Amino acid sequence: MWRASVLTIFPDMFPGPLGASLAGKALAAGAWSLEVADIRGFAADKHRSVDDTPAGGGAGMVMKADVLARAIDATAGNARPRLLLSPRGVPLTQARVEALAGGAGVVLVCGRFEGIDERVIAARALEEVSIGDYVLSGGELAAMVLIDACVRLLPGVMGAAASGAEESFADGLLEYPQYTRPQLWEGRPIPEILLSGDHGKIAAWRRAEAERLTRERRPDLWGAFIRRFRGGSQTA
Ligand SMILES: C[S@@+](CC[C@H](N)C(=O)[O-])C[C@H]1O[C@@H](n2cnc3c(N)ncnc32)[C@H](O)[C@@H]1O
Q1: Which amino acids bring their CB within 6 angstroms of ligand 1?
Q2: How far apart are the C-alpha atoms of 111 and 147, rounded to whole Å?
């Protein structure tokens, strides 16, 4: 079973949204497991302190290396990658999500305050992962994002296997536009071709639309797509 272990000072935030919908059903069905450890439980003093002032001065607080290391050591997870959610980390991609979903699970460390003591990152070989170029107030929402993205790829979690294979990023492109009934809404029709019943033409239209959207919206992805799938023979 795919296992997610989360280390946080706000254990009550979990499962939160992960308890609803697709992820929640899969959790209840035993397709994955969630274990949440309260970092505060590993504090050594009577105030259960998990943070202290930054060495060298400055604003805010820093999570203590010793407390965090004890929490990490108590979480069995040698076969699983240990990730620290961090805006300094390598940006999370669908390719990484697929690799993580294909493994045994993840151990996720959620930072708070100004972040965590640098020494514990090195000493416990934490890999820093970011969910985007913006700063959250804590790693918990980022951990939920990562878990949700992985869980929906686990065998049997998504209804139709094809819905994962065709969606955004699966082959380096954004997804084509989707429509459903009514056929005409506020004067806007569903593109004729989607009603034609010609699966070959529909597939070609969807592919062309996926390429157009990627080219227009994400020149970074489009450039990578051209290099990877077309051997650089076409230009954007
Ligand atoms: C207020 S942030 C600390 C930001 C840090 N002082 C900096 O400038 O890089 C507190 C915690 O939120 C989490 N966090 C914030 N933004 C994130 C992001 N984009 N991706 C992943 N985790 C994030 C991290 O765990 C971080 O330790």
Answers
A1: 85-88, 110-112, 114-115, 130-132, 134-139, 142
A2: 16
